[in-house]
Amino acid sequence: MLCNLCPRRCNAERNEYIGNGYCGMPLYPVVAKYMLHFGEEPSISGEKGSGTVFFSSCSLNCVFCQNEEISHRRKGKKITPTRLAEIFKELEDMGAHNINLVNPTHFVWAIKEALKIYRPKIPLVYNSSGYDNSDVIGENIFDIYLMDLKYVSSEKSLKYSGAADYFENAGKAIKTAYSLTGKPQFDEKGIMQKGLIVRHLVLPLSTKEAIKVVDWFSENTPDAVLSIMSQYVPLAKAENYPEINRKITNREYEKVLNCVMNKNLENVYIQERNSATTELIPDF
Question: Could you tell me the CA-to-CA distances from 143 to 52, 127, 206, 242 in Å, in that order?
Answer without folding.
Answer: 15, 11, 32, 40
